[in-house]
């Protein structure tokens, strides 16, 4: 019987490089790099930094050097939360949260929290751009009011993050991701410590974009191959920045490392498959994708939250884990807070708050009548408990609308 030699060469992202690995080949010709030898053992951090500068991935020979598996799958590097993994399997909640304020009661406090967070995030990111380190205590001060507001009632902050005018996609995206993560974690019944981890992780996971030139991040034309690679390098920049931050838990760093991984292995930088990505990273991947789709970006217009959820549902068990997708849809509702909707009767409104027991029947602020003319006074209707005037013809939602349809700009209704 013919014996086949075991494959000893592995493709590995430069994010995962460590001293002692034998680099056998690159993702580009050796002549395009400053390396003198075609094949060498990594001796120090300077060589790792140079490889990261020129390559997105390399090939290592595990017979001649350290095996990446000892690093990539090491529990201290990509540990998952076994307690939360079990909750996904059992469909159980560790904490049962109840609203202690109505959305309207919480709105003034939530508005203060999100506006303060937005200004503080600019300060955090700009300090990183100028070469300073991240102040963990400063980050905690940012997320704590958001966590507490969402614990009291998530609808107020979800309304504000969906409808506020966003000056910078990168900065706004960080705050919105943070709020979405807390809301999702609350829905899943995660303890406060997990909410804090998700909040800080989602807020900081794109900090590495501060190392990418603004002209590339803000480019409206399609990116070149080189520019696309440059943007993807924000993951390794984020990890490097956060690893140098004192007092930061490994779970938070791993969120930055894995939020672009995909359940089917098609993500980056590690091509991790399934639960090789820690549960926090799998949660972050869904949230990051949803917020990107529903936000104004330099290279594309937003889609409605309704359409974004449909797309994410279609990607269950390919890009994203099915159990988490199901939970995410339950969390946001069929028509998420802030969605522009058209009723069967022709009226147009914006979803104000969710009804937890009946996700197809949220609270809606009616803006346009059936002839698509503005109402003189906006009326908020709870589709479960509708006013008597609708007894003969109860309001129901026909479809979700894209922002701007019928001339309605949702940001005009930021309170």
CATH hierarchy: architecture of the largest domain: Orthogonal Bundle
Provide the helix percentage.
Answer: 40-55%
CATH superfamily of the largest domain: Hypothetical protein af1432
Shape: elongated
Uncertain segments are: 1-6, 70-75
Order of helices and strands: EEEHEHHHHHHHHHHHHHHHEEEEE
CATH class term of the largest domain: Mainly Alpha
How many domains make up the coordinates? 3
Q: How large is the count of helical segments?
A: 16
**Widest sheet: strand order?**
8-7-6-5-9
- For the record, give the distance between the C-alpha atoms at the N and C termini, rounded to a whole number: 75 Å
Q: What amount of the residues lies in strands?
A: 5-15%
Radius of gyration: 23 Å
Q: Major β-sheet, in short? A: 5 strands, antiparallel
Number of strands: 9
CATH topology of the largest domain: Hypothetical protein af1432
- Please tell me the overall pLDDT: 88
What class, by secondary structure content? alpha+beta
Protein traits:
disordered N terminus; 415 residues; elongated; 3 domains
């Amino acid at each position: 019987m013919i014996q086949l030699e075991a494959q000893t060469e592995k493709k590995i992202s430069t994010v995962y490089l460590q001293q002692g690995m034998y680099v056998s080949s690159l993702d580009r010709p050796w002549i395009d790099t400053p390396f003198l030898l075609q094949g060498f053992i990594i001796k120090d951090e300077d060589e790792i930094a140079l490889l990261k500068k020129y390559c997105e991935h390399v090939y290592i020979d595990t017979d001649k050097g350290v095996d990446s598996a000892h690093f990539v799958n090491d529990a201290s590097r990509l540990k998952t939360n076994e307690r939360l993994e079990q909750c996904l399997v059992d469909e159980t909640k560790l904490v049962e949260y109840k609203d202690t304020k109505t959305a309207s009661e919480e709105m003034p406090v939530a508005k203060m929290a999100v506006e303060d967070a937005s200004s503080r995030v600019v300060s955090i990111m700009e300090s990183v751009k100028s070469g300073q380190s991240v102040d963990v205590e400063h980050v905690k001060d940012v997320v704590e009011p958001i966590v507490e507001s969402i614990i009291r009632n998530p609808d107020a902050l979800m309304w504000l993050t969906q409808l506020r005018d966003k000056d910078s996609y990168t900065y706004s995206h960080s705050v919105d991701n943070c709020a979405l993560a807390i809301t999702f974690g609350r829905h899943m019944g995660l303890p406060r410590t997990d909410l804090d981890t998700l909040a800080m992780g989602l807020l900081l996971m794109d900090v590495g974009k501060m190392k990418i030139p603004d002209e590339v991040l803000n480019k409206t034309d399609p990116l070149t191959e080189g520019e696309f690679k440059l943007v993807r390098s924000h993951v390794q920049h984020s990890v490097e920045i956060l690893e140098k931050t004192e007092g930061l838990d490994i779970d938070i760093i791993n969120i930055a490392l894995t939020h672009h991984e995909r359940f089917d292995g098609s993500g980056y930088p590690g091509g991790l498959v399934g639960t090789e990505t820690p549960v926090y990273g799998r949660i972050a991947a869904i949230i990051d994708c949803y917020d990107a789709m529903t936000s104004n970006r330099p290279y594309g217009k937003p889609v409605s939250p309704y359409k974004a959820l449909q797309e994410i549902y279609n990607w269950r068990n390919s890009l994203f884990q099915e159990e988490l997708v199901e939970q995410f849809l339950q969390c946001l509702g069929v028509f998420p807070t802030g969605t522009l909707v058209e009723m069967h009767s022709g009226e147009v409104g914006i979803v104000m708050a969710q009804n937890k027991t009946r996700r197809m029947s949220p609270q809606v602020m009616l803006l346009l009548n059936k002839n698509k003319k503005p109402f003189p006074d906006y009326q908020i209707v709870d589709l479960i408990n509708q006013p008597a005037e609708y007894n003969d013809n109860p309001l129901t939602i026909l479809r979700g609308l894209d922002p701007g349809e019928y001339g309605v700009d949702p940001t005009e209704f930021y309170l």
